[in-house]
Structures are given as structure tokens and as C-alpha cells.
Design brief:
With about 270 residues, this protein is of the alpha+beta class. The chain has nine helices and 13 strands. A five-stranded mixed sheet has the order 6-8-7-10-9, with helices on one face. The model has no long low-confidence stretch (mean pLDDT about 90).
């Protein structure tokens, strides 16, 4: 990486092993933070048996760190996760997928049924390959997979459910032309097990009392009540494994409530 591309080097202490890690803050990280629905971008540094993630806001200020253990030591190769055959049951467009993440040291694969076409796309740390049950426009497939690749390049979940839900949503989105806002929904779903919903008081109580029509007509009132009445829960818990259309709309609802200051979405 050219030094001209580095805004500054930030030294972050790893809370697990105590090592002082130099992380390079680049313009791409700032741009990712601006595009991220939470206004944050994570920088991952794998070392020893764990990965340090430092989060930066759109101003380049550090906003906390997170550490998680790698599933398998890098010298042993990628850790393989094979999803159960029924995990993608009911998909009408996707017949299977594989995701490799070098920064997380994992490969997640599904069973693949009859395939009409396949597309593979690679990024800096991530490879995504999707098999399709029927033909689509190459431009549409490429557009959606570029959005998904960008999301997974900046995701830090190794939970199979997060990947299953992400591809279940992708399955229905393939029937539309790609649109930029979908990236925010995909990112929230792809990181669902790492993000905690925390209602704000008194904002949540006032929101429930006055029930603004614009929100309650667009989204499920039962879902909104569930997430603002509980003290806290993971995004993945709130979304569950509902049908893909409902998953997408409920993820949108969470982002809407977050933008309105009704709840916080906290990376943990």
C-alpha cells in the first residue's frame, strides 16, 4: 500500500494478548464508514489465534475494538462450514453458494441443487460464488454480487445463520435491478449476530405512545413493539428466519428506528 494512501497509522492495543497493533487508516476506510448504516468501518488484524477489529467513524476517530477467536489456526487452512441441506430450502433463484473469507479464515458452503448458471466474484479478502437455478441478465447478477461482495468484505460475522439470511434475501432481490440502499440492509443482516439492539429511553416509550403513521403503516407494528419493548437483543434474534421479504422489511425497520434515534445498534 502506498504511503500516499494512508491518512495515518493508529496503534491499537489488543485486549486479548496485549500486543500493540499498528493499523493503517486509509481513505477507503473513511468512505466505508460514510456508507455504513452505523457510520463505522472495521479494520481487521488477524494474529495468533484471534482477530482484532478496530472500528473507526467517518471522521477517522477510533470507536472501540472487538476481538474474536479464529475457528482454526491459519496454518491449518480455511475452516470449513457446510450448511445443512434444508437451510436454503424454498429458494427459487439460487441453488447454492460458497463464501471464502481470508480475514476470518473460513469457507461457508451450502448444498447445491441443479444449476443453470454460476458466477464467481473476488475481492481483497473475500471470494463469493453463487449457483443459480435459472438464467438472469449478467448485468443484474453482477450488480447484486458486487454489492454483496462489498458487504462481506466489511463484515465480521462467522455465524452460519447470518450467511443463510443474507443469501435468502439475495434470492428475492435478484428479481429486481440492483439499488444502492440494499447494501445497508445486507450489511445489517450479514452482521446480525454481532450487533445488539438497545432501545433508547424515553425515545422508545414516546415512539410507542404516539405511533407515527409514516413508520407504523410501512412496517409491522408487532415487530416494532418487539424490538423497542425488550431491554436488548441481537439483530439476528429479532429477525429470526422469517420469509425473505419479511426479513428485508424488518431489517429496513431496524435501520429506520436507528436513524430516528429510537434505538441504538451496537457492535459487540
Amino acid at each position: 500500500m502506498s504511503r500516499a494512501q494512508v491518512i495515518r497509522t493508529v496503534k491499537v492495543r489488543c485486549p486479548r494478548c496485549g500486543a500493540e497493533i499498528p493499523l493503517e487508516l486509509t481513505p477507503n476506510i473513511i468512505e466505508e464508514a460514510k456508507a455504513n448504516p452505523l457510520g463505522l468501518a472495521g479494520v481487521a488484524y488477524p494474529h495468533l489465534d484471534h482477530v482484532l477489529i478496530a472500528y473507526f467513524d467517518r471522521n477517522g476517530e477510533e470507536r472501540g475494538v472487538r476481538v474474536f477467536l479464529t475457528l482454526q489456526a491459519p496454518e491449518k487452512g480455511l475452516y470449513e462450514i457446510l450448511l445443512a441441506k434444508d437451510d436454503l430450502k424454498g429458494l427459487r433463484n439460487i441453488s447454492g453458494f460458497r463464501v471464502e473469507s481470508r480475514k476470518l479464515n473460513i469457507r461457508i458452503s451450502s448444498f447445491t441443487t441443479a444449476t443453470t448458471a454460476a458466477l464467481k466474484i473476488s475481492g481483497r479478502d473475500t471470494i463469493v460464488e453463487v449457483d443459480f437455478q435459472r438464467d438472469f441478465s449478467y448485468q443484474i447478477l453482477r450488480g447484486w454480487l458486487e454489492i454483496l461482495l462489498d458487504v462481506l468484505e466489511n463484515s465480521y460475522s462467522s455465524a452460519p445463520l447470518d450467511y443463510v439470511n443474507t443469501f435468502r434475501i439475495l434470492d428475492i432481490m435478484l428479481e429486481e435491478k440492483p439499488f444502492a440502499y440494499a447494501k445497508q440492509v445486507f450489511w445489517l443482516v450479514a452482521n446480525g449476530s454481532t450487533i445488539t439492539i438497545r432501545p433508547r429511553l424515553p425515545e422508545a416509550l414516546l415512539f410507542k405512545k404516539y405511533r407515527p403513521t409514516l413508520v407504523y403503516e410501512k412496517y409491522s407494528g408487532a415487530f416494532i413493539s418487539k424490538v423497542i419493548e425488550k431491554n436488548e437483543m441481537k439483530v439476528s434474534e429479532a429477525l429470526g428466519q422469517d420469509n425473505p421479504q419479511v426479513l428485508f422489511v424488518n431489517a429496513e425497520a431496524l435501520l429506520s428506528l436507528y436513524r430516528r434515534g429510537v434505538l441504538d445498534l451496537v457492535i459487540e
